[in-house]
Design goal:
single chain; 128 residues; alpha/beta; Rossmann fold; five-stranded mixed sheet; 5 helices; globular
């Protein structure tokens, strides 16, 4: 599969996501890179209202909220820094052993974070 980056579609996404108005301090030093990663992930995944979307290693990313607002999916933010377990739309603990049932999510993204999975963590994550 190839991904054709379309600048017009990216700008439409960027404006709809509201980075400058809703998240003015998000990635202030490198917003073009992060917002493009969000655009590419959501464009390739194409979540819809029946999808459960997990942003893995989300920390403080607006991606789950953007996915819900722009695509209508049910979003979750997962991060090791969150309290263990599921609380609202947050999933805390190790992404390689999320406390959710099999088949819980229909879409998941990992933007700018794979390098943080040490040892065999990347392999365990993909099994999860």
């Amino acid at each position: 599969m190839t991904f054709q980056a379309d600048l017009v579609r990216y700008r439409i996404f960027f404006d709809a996501a509201g980075y400058q108005t809703r998240y003015p301090d998000y990635y202030a030093g490198n917003l073009p890179e992060s917002s493009f990663e969000h655009f590419a992930a959501l464009d390739l995944l194409n979540p819809g209202p029946s999808d459960v979307f997990i942003d893995i290693a989300s920390e403080g990313s607006p991606l789950p909220e953007i996915a819900a607002r722009v695509h209508g999916c049910r979003p979750y933010a997962q991060d090791i820094r969150y309290a263990d377990g599921v609380s609202g739309n947050r999933i805390g603990g190790d992404a390689c052993t999320m406390p959710v049932p099999d088949g819980f999510a229909t879409r998941a993204a990992l933007t700018c974070s794979l390098e943080h999975f040490e040892g065999d963590g990347d392999i365990r994550l993909f099994h999860e």
